[in-house]
Amino acid sequence: MQSPNVSSTSGAVPAPLSPEAPVVGRLPDLLDDAVVAAWAASGAPLVELLRTAWVPGRLTGFRRGGRDAVLVTHPRHVHQVLGVGGDRFVKRAHRARPLVGNGVISAAGEEWRSQRRLLQAPFTGRGIQRWEHHIAGAARAIADRWAERARTGEPADLAEDAQFFTVDTIWRSLTDHPLDPATYEDLAGVQDIVAALPADVGGGAELPAPAAAALAALDERMHRAIADARARHTAGSAGTGLLFRLLDAAESDARYDDRLIRDELVTLLVAGYESSARTLTWVFVLLDRHPEVARRAAGDPSAIEGVLAETLRLYPTGWLLPRQAEDDAWLDGVRVPAGTDVLVCPYLTHRDPGVWPDPDAFLPDRFPPRTPPPPGAYLPFGIGPRACLGTRFAMREMEVLLGLLLPRFAIEAAAPAGEPVFGLNLRPDGPFLAHVRARG
Length: 440
Known about the structure:
Layout: E1 6-8, E2 29-31, H1 33-42, H2 46-53, E3 60-64, E4 67-72, H3 75-83, E5 89-90, H4 97-100, H5 109-120, H6 132-152, E6 156-157, H7 158-175, H8 181-188, H9 190-196, H10 209-234, H11 242-250, H12 258-289, H13 291-299, H14 303-314, E7 321-325, E8 329-331, E9 334-336, E10 341-344, H15 346-349, H16 391-405, E11 409-413, E12 420-422, E13 426-428, E14 433-438
């Protein structure tokens, strides 16, 4: 039976989609305009409109501002859009462009391919081995901080600790320098800029004054780092940080001027700390709610992988991945006209009860799965050619930190965690205050 909130744009009652019996040429089912108007008037976040449109296994969507948007959640459709449809479903405009400029996550076409090739090798499994000492050093700094908190009994903001760790890790990996307080203040301003960016491509690009000021401070810090690294580079001081790789590229590729190097640094900073910091915060929230899982992970390092995988299933930081149909395209015989916005939503895909039994429960034992999920069913870092470049780096830094903290400390929330905020990324609202206790 059709959802009461969904109307078929073809005028016929839609049949369930299946690869065996596609309905060639049928258009996706869009919400009634009145439902969309009521959502807009309510001021509710975009995720609420997506939840209203969502019918597991079906292509649905809505019309907004004269444009059609198709919601893609079924694994098969996700794979068709992101995995094999890179030339047909493209990024129209990146929501983070005011922040990252022409960095690798916002670039397109041959520019994107060239930039990605330059950065690919350092993020392979072998490539990140050169930064193991940076990850370990940043993790030890947080362990020392927690030891002091355990001694005093004062509650701490674990979201702030997660953020400091991930900023410290990526800054060391970019510049070969540990993080100092002044630099952290400028770099942490990224969170205010990200919070001001639109959740999808339909939002505005103008930054409010506080976010614009944070962006100016970030730019100044990045250009100082470039100047410092160039002076060291010119003096013959070899560095392992990614900034030095970009300076090497500038010697043979005129595109790598200071602006593009700045854009790549900010892109790597955002990709290197935002997602990991938010994921670690969600890990702390979930382990507080499930102390039996925390105890198991404290005594069994192999359990940490399941904790991280399940946290990323429930709270993928890249919860919405917008694309646009470049030309008329088809998903299981359903026509998606050229120019249609295509909204891939990992948050809803990860909650499809047909793929994930008891989808809202925190069950780390799902991982590793006995049977691999179908392509497109699990995509916390995206899939396909534009999957996150730093997936291995992110997983490694989170595993190292949790492997160091969980055997030594237990956490107990001092105040409830905030509700999820569905902005450019998915994060808990506000701080997460908790007591840190030394394990006996």
